[in-house]
UniProtKB/TrEMBL annotation, chain A:
Keywords: Cell inner membrane, Cell membrane, Membrane, Transmembrane, Transmembrane helix, Transport. It comes from Oceanobacillus arenosus. The chain crosses the membrane at residues 12-32, 70-94, 106-126, 146-169, 206-228, 252-272, 302-327, 361-385, 397-420, 426-446, 484-505, 543-564. The keyword Membrane applies. This is Iron ABC transporter permease. It is found in: Cell inner membrane; Cell membrane. Residues 66-271, 361-556 form the ABC transmembrane type-1 domain. InterPro entries: MetI-like, MetI-like_sf.
Amino acid sequence: MDTLKNRWNKWNPVTILLSFFIIWFVFAFLVFPNVNTIYETFFGTGTFSLEPVEKLLRSDRAVQSVLNSILLAIILVFTVNIVGISLVLFTNYFDIKGASILKLSYFSTLVYGGVALNLGYKLVYGKNSPLTDFLTQINPNWDGNWFSGLFAVGFVMTFACTSNHMLFLSSALRNVDYQTIEAAKNLGASQITILKNVVLPTLKPTLFALTIITFLTGLSATSAPLVFGGKEFETITPMILTFANSSSSKDLATVLALVLGIVTIIVLTFMLRSEQKGNYISISKTKTTLVKQKINNKTVNILVHIIAYILFIIYTMPVLAIIIYSFTDAMAISSGFITWDSFTIDNYLLTFSSLEAVRPYLISLGYGFAGSFLVVAFCLLCAYLMKKYNNRLTRTLDFMLMIPWFLPSTLIAVGLTVTFNTNQWVVLNQVFTGTLWLLLIGYIIVNIPFTLRITKSTFFGINQEIEDAAKNLGANAFYTFIKVLLPIILPSIMGIYSLNFIGILPDYDLTVFLYHPLYEPLGITIMNATGNSASADTKALNLVYTVILVILNTMILTAVYGNLRFRKRKKV
Amino acid sequence: MMGKGMKYAILLTGLFVVLVLAACSNGSSANTDGTETANADSKSTETKNTDSETASETTNSEEKLIVYTNSNGDGRGEWIVEEAKNAGFNIEIVGAGGGDATNRLISEKANPVADVVFGLNHMFFEQLQAEEVLTPYEPAWASEIEEGINDPENYYHGLVKQALVLSYNPEFVNEADAPENYLDLANNEEFAGIYQARDDLGSATAKVIVASILAQFEDTNGELGISDEGWETIARYYENGVQIPEGEDYFTIFASGDAPIGTMISGELAAKQEQYGTEPAFLHPEVGTPQVVESIAIVDGTEQLELAQEFVDWYGSAEVQGAFAAEFNAMPANLEAQDQVTDFQKEIFADVKAQDIDWAFVTENIDAWVEKLELEIF
């Protein structure tokens, strides 16, 4: 009976159809355009040439940058995991006073990122900041540029990259069966033992995924090294971006991107092996919700509180700085010195000079909504098939879907436009360049790797028994997926959905190549207002757009995520 | 026409299948959630539908010109659209930085979206011409342009002149201590740490400064056409200079005194001065000041060649360029438009002597120079 059913499942026409769809999509949009780019690099002149590789190896700066990127990635794996796990424990596991306020500040990295976030840290720790002024007053020998180099980059990125922990580790933690903790307690286990041997192992699949993501974030770090790295700590992505923009140096960009790709594949192979080996304790089947733990040891309790509130300050200050300085004039922003006269709302008036100004927001919201939805749906499908049929084909698929992670978006975009501006048999002879679709496809592609990693880890965290139980009760695969699996993973899925959404809103690098001329997205508007060619007060406008994005993102998060939790609470 | 309709039909069906599948899955996850998520999904299908409808509408209309430019910030884009409308042109502006616009045009070569491109400087236009993106056309006003600016083969024609003026901030640097030129900055230790050396070589401004320095060391036997002395000089120039931090602006660090010697861009000065209340003092090197010219050209393969030509004739005319100059403090390349130039601009250009740069030599080599700078010198 069981084998019969399995066999039937294996040849389920829907599965076959979907598999073909995935294979076609991956080939048409991930492999075809990008392999074109890579091929051009090495065979551009007609013969195979290693010249770009030699050029790069001769350059100390290039080699050092690659090493720096890898060093940063390794450091971040440790620091981000330590801070991230602490945040999640402080807000969801331990009984900390004022946890809801703490949570708010720990969540702040979700609503702003990239250059804006770095600007925030710069306003707090940078050369002209009140903090640095204070430090130089205490100690006149204090270097005004103290906040730079590896330390500064590591510091900023450690706290900037914990968003995923806050979202996905929290939801994994909430799924821990409280009865296992109770049982351990009854057996006389200490709090630290319970944490180490009961709670953390359950979080392993999620931590694996988060570690991969953190590593790759460090590897491809762009804005933090540009802002804080200075000459002594340069990383590879800024160099890739410079070369990718110059027509004759694209080969160098591709080679550097391939280096990142190879490191990514090595890390991924290693991680996937561990992921498959892992033997996980499953999530609760009986819905006993986690009860927050009061720390018994008084000194430890005080210490934990102090750390929690120091983190609170670290997380709050950059956001506060951005909001405050967005209401001041250009001079105050650059000098860091605020007087009563500095305050103005001109920056905001400039941004919303006409009703037309609202249009890009709507367009980007539309793209964010649709793009994020489709990428989540696609990755759910892939992850489900990967879990169900763990064979060579699905493992290859896993690697294929990681392609967008190591190619810079400029190259992906150029690959897409060059490939799809003529009739291509692979998409039934359609021309995509100059249509609305190209940008949508672009957004889907670049968000696949991250979405897939999280989706997969969520799927692997589900107990096989739950699925088996549903099947034994006669539910077919589709029904099981919808009725049993999806509700369990929904919080994480919604988390990815909103993160992708938030990421799409201000995107420039990819958008500028793919957008439809008549539909200008927000990223373009922001760049036009604040970029090089604009003469308006670019720094102030940057702050204003950041604040607007913070508000928008908060709205998206509360709409998608908050709502979900609210409903959950109602059910309890 | 049928092809277009079919295309959208196919795409929509594909999208619809995915949406429906996903909508089902969400909708039935829990009864209480159903209505909300389902609502949201139908909304997304709706947006898709309307989007594609309007898209096919606009691609059908024959009269709209798509114009790529990097010169649409600060309300310039709106002004141009409005003026064009009054003159009977229906144009749509696509804004992107010079490098990005160039890359986009090149990658769209096989099936161009744009009809006209303007605002990029001649280095980008040289690149576009080499990639065969442009089609030649001699506008009615071509003869009114200053000599030496238009492309001799008529691929592009000048609109606006920008002078990149080496300047110092008199609040922090005395007139007696001011440098003479870029080479002085590189060779004289006393300027170390107080002048700007822009390393954002993706930007046109930084490239022009590099060109201005290196072009003085042209040597056919040297590496990439530049003598050893030239490479040593530019290495020192970057070694001693201050780089503009990411997320900041050249004028910010100029005004704050972090790097009070730097290159001002003539077209941006008026607005910058007003914001920061800083008035730069200009330097006039003997070798001259590098000037870049923003030009206009027609994209090869446009389906509306005649309309594009009419637009170019109109936009580059003395009347329009003069009005633009008066409105946005620009320096038109069209001699007959120069009587409308603001006093402010006149003052900047009064003593500026254009540096004689062999642009053909520069465009041929600039990418290789940038590569060398990035890999070996920075």
